[in-house]
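As a warm-up, study this chain.
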Amino acid sequence: MHSFISYECVDRLKLPTHHLSFDLLISTPTFDLVVTSNFCSKCLIVVNGREFCVNLICLPLSNIDVILGMNWLSSNHILIDYARKTLIILYLKNSGFVIVD
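Now compare it with the structure written out below.
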């Protein structure tokens, strides 16, 4: 549900971090638990040429810079094309949603 950024990426991009008022316990795919309380607020990301702001929770990730969570993907009307390994952005037009490639 959450979106994440690696500490390595935070350092490389010199992003400011903030502290949550609580510790967040994250379960990883390797079944390890990671505790974090750092996040980057309102980070600008570009997906298919469109700019978005996203809050990213800092995690010690390996070989991954950013993980966009399902809540962010759904609230921005973004679909995942697993076969092509691409994201499809939908935007609202008068007649309904239109696909932007």
